[in-house]
Design a protein that fits this description.
The protein is mainly alpha-helical. It contains 16 helices and seven strands. The chain has two domains: 175 residues, no CATH class; 200 residues, hpI Integrase, Chain A. Helix 9 packs antiparallel against helix 10 and helix 9 crosses helix 13.
Length: 413
């Protein structure tokens, strides 16, 4: 069965809650051709994902859905053994597969799992459980060797975490007795002890200036780009994740989430990871960007406490923008800034602008603040880190900079 092409098993959380086999012909056909325990395992996973979607964030649901889906597909189509019989060796065998999946399990782009055809949710033939990541700077490469796919350490950790939590859930529900993942994780040969110097995915001051100047020029030439400028400035200056500006089923960012305290300090209320609300300090330097965006939208100069206007609205249609839509707007600015910097300063200095993603703006803003000398505790709280140690590990690079400076003085002779 290893040659059978995998099909997606689970849709979004809302669709999963209304799942009927009659609506998903490929899933029905697959499970009908498999032993009866596969249907039982499918229903276990469905219950686990419904629990996850009900009690965790949509991002946690998506992450666990992806991992459990891969695990079950491997179990059904390749291992062909009930997971209640798995031991440490079986989990390590699955880790081997995750390290180098079959090429017919690997895609090269993000794809929707299902497409509605004739009223049914049909499996998208372009969807694959794994995706080989192509660097943004190499998007023009026409042929991709799928055999070169290797997961990152972060991807491996995410796999072990999700499958372990799944086993814990099954154990709690008395459907399974024991969790072999915890023992297997210690013996996985693909994990390495990382003592490398951490490279922060961020822009230099010069690259950031090109991005900001480009966004300002675009907005000055066409008022519709005021939205792009506002997004760019907010992500960098307020250390936001792209999801924290987006419309989500359980949260809609509005202008009224900007608020002012009795000392006339401005704050922004944000719904972040782990379904946690936090208040971010809003610097005075950001206010002109907020004001010009509100002027473009024909709103009063500054937000009111009871204002329900969407924070980043669609130009066409109603409501706020999704994370994917917001990324497209940021990418448009990155592309133009890259061309400008490349023309003025050469391709080497502009290269990072070709590689950059929206999350680089959050890293850029936080790194610059720490370099400016702002207390680490204050930056950590604005970032929404649960521990200041996380901020210290990710952003503080002063010791490495000193080591690099002293290392330059070594001599060959």
């Amino acid at each position: 069965m290893s040659k059978i092409n995998p099909v997606p098993l689970f849709a979004s959380y809302n669709e999963l809650c209304e799942f009927h086999f009659d609506d998903y012909p490929e899933i029905s056909a697959l499970l009908n051709d498999l032993p009866g325990w596969c249907l039982e395992h499918f229903n276990w996973a469905k219950s686990f994902l419904e629990y996850t979607g009900r009690n965790k964030s949509i991002h946690t649901y998506d992450r666990f859905r992806n991992e459990i889906e891969r695990f079950l597909l491997w179990t059904f189509l390749i291992k062909q053994k009930p997971i209640v019989q798995f031991r440490k060796a079986d989990i390590l065998e699955y880790a081997d597969f995750c390290w180098q999946p079959s090429v017919n399990w690997i895609g090269t782009s993000n794809q929707e799992r299902f497409k509605v055809i004739n009223g049914y949710s049909s499996a998208n033939e372009s969807w694959f459980p794994y995706k080989i990541q192509i660097p943004k700077a190499q998007k023009s490469v026409s042929t991709i060797d799928k055999k070169k796919y290797r997961p990152s350490q972060q991807t491996l950790k995410a796999m072990f975490t999700a499958v372990s939590v799944f086993y814990d859930y099954l154990t709690y529900e008395e459907l399974c007795y024991g969790n072999p993942v915890k023992m297997a994780r210690r013996d996985c040969r693909y994990f390495v002890t990382d003592a490398q110097v951490k490279e922060i995915k961020r822009l230099t001051s010069s690259q950031w200036q090109y991005v900001l100047d480009t966004a300002v020029d675009m907005a000055n030439e066409d008022a519709n780009f005021e939205r792009n400028l506002f997004i760019i400035a907010a992500l960098k200056t307020l250390f936001l994740r792209i999801s924290e500006l987006s419309e989500r089923p359980d949260w809609s960012p509005i202008m009224g989430h900007f608020w002012q305290d009795e000392d006339e300090n401005w704050w922004l209320k944000v719904y972040g990871k782990g379904r946690k609300l936090r208040d971010i300090t809003v610097p005075t330097d950001f206010l002109p960007f907020l004001q010009r965006y509100r002027t473009y939208r024909e709103l009063p100069n500054m937000p009111l406490s009871n204002e329900n206007n969407i924070l980043v609205e669609k130009i066409r249609g109603q409501g706020g923008m999704t994370s994917r839509q917001l990324r497209r707007l940021v990418q448009g600015v990155f592309d133009k800034a890259h061309e400008k910097m490349k023309a003025h300063e050469g391709s080497n200095k502009a290269l990072k602008l070709k590689e950059a993603s929206t999350h680089w703006l959050r890293h850029t803003g936080a790194s610059m603040e720490i370099e400016r000398g702002r207390p680490l505790k204050d930056v950590s709280e604005d970032l929404g880190h649960a521990s200041m140690a996380t901020t210290d590990t990710v952003y503080v690079q002063s010791e490495n900079k000193q080591r690099a400076a002293s290392g330059k003085k070594r001599k060959v002779n």
